C-alpha cells in the first residue's frame, strides 16, 4: 500500500505550484512530508505527465526499455533525477542501479530476474512459535541428540559444498563419498537419511570405488607428461606426447582424464573480452593498421587487459602513443567499469596542447561505444577509430605492448595480492617509458626519443 494517496499528492503539488513564495522545504514541512526531495519529484512528475505521474505504476521494465532510458540520459547529459522524471520512473534509485549493472555486465545484466518457485520449508521452519518445545522439560538425552543432529547436518553440508559447486545438485557418488567419510562419527542410518540416499545405492557406490581403475596407468602417464613440461602442455600436446611413448590414445579421452585430474595448461589463459553486443555506436576503422606516426600526439591506441592474482582480478586501461610507444596515461581497477576508462581518457586529454587533436583507436568494447566516452572525444575534436569486430590485428600495437608487459613483468614475478601487482605495474610502466630502450627508436627509451625530437 502506498504511503501517500493520489489525492494527497495532487493537493500538495497544487499547493506548491500555486504558491511560489514558499520553497519546497517549507511546503513539505507544512504537509508533514519526511523530505522536500519527495515533493520535488512529485512536481516534476506532474509537470511532465500530468495526473498520471502521481498514480501508482508497475515497476516491471524490459532490458531494452532500461537501455533506452540510459542511452537517453547519456546522450542528453541528464541527471538521475531528471531521467527518472522524464520517463515517469517512481523509484529514482532504479536508474542508478541500471547504469551500474550495465557498466559491469552489459545488456545481459539488465534482464529482469526470473521468479522461481520458492523452496519447500523444512519442518523446523514451518513449526509455529507456540509449538516450540520447552527446553526445561526435555531430558538431557533429547538435548544431546538434537545437538548431535545439528552437528551432523553442519558437517555434511560443509563436506558436500567442498566437493560440488552446487551442493543442491550433488551427484550420488559425491553424496556416497561424504557419507563414507562421516560414518565413523555419526550413525550411517542418520547420514543416509540426511543425504536422501538409499542404503543399496550407497554400497553400490562403494563397490565401484573398490574396482580397479582401468585408466590408472594412463593417468600416471598423463600426469608425468604434464609435470615434465611444467604445465605448458594442453590436452592436444599431451596426447601427442603419450602417443610418442607407444600408447595409442584418443585425444577426447586424454581431455576427459585431464579434467578429472584437474590438469589444465597454464599458458594463454582466457582473455578478457570487452565486447558486450551491439550497444551504442561503433566508429569506422580510421587507423587502417597504419601504426606509424611522424610526430607525438598524432595517433593514440588504447585497450583493456586483465590480470589474475590470488583469485582476484585487476584490469589495466592504458593509452599508447604510436609515435614512440610511450604510455601517455593509464588507470587500474578491480572491475572493468566505465569510470576506469573515463578517468584514463581525462588524464590523457589533459596532456594535450589546444592545437593537438590525435586520432584515438580502440576495439569495439562497450566502454568505447558509451555516449559519455564519445562525448569526451567530440568535445576535444578527437577522431575516434575502432577495429573491425573480432579482429585483434587492427589494434596490434596495443596488443604488442600487453605482450611485452606480461612476458617481461607479470610472468616473471610472483604476487601475493592485487595491491602488490598494482604497485609493480606503476613501477614497470615508469621503467618502460623512461629506461627501457627500443632498437627502432635508435636505442633510446620512449621519453628520451620524444625529448630528443623536441630539442632538435
Short description:
It comes from Telluria mixta. This protein has helices at 6-18, 24-30, 36-49, 63-75, 80-86, 93-105, 123-126, 140-163, 172-182, 188-195, 199-210, 216-228, 235-244, 251-261, 338-350, 371-379, 396-410, 418-434, 446-455; strands at 299-302, 305-309, 312-321, 327-333, 359-362, 383-386. By secondary structure, it is α/β, with parallel strands linked by helices.
* Count of individual beta strands: 6
Structural class: alpha/beta
Order of helices and strands: HHHHHHHHHHHHHHEEEEHEHEHHH
Distance between the termini: 76 Å
Enumerate the spans where pLDDT stays under 50 for 5 or more consecutive residues: 125-132
Whole-number mean pLDDT: 82
Would you write up a description of this structure?
With 456 residues, the chain is an alpha/beta fold. Among the domains are: 6-110, no CATH class; 216-261; 299-455, 2-Layer Sandwich (Nucleotidyltransferase, domain 5). The protein contains 19 helices and six strands. Strands 1, 2, 3, 4, 5 and 6 form a six-stranded mixed sheet that branches. 23% of the residues are buried.
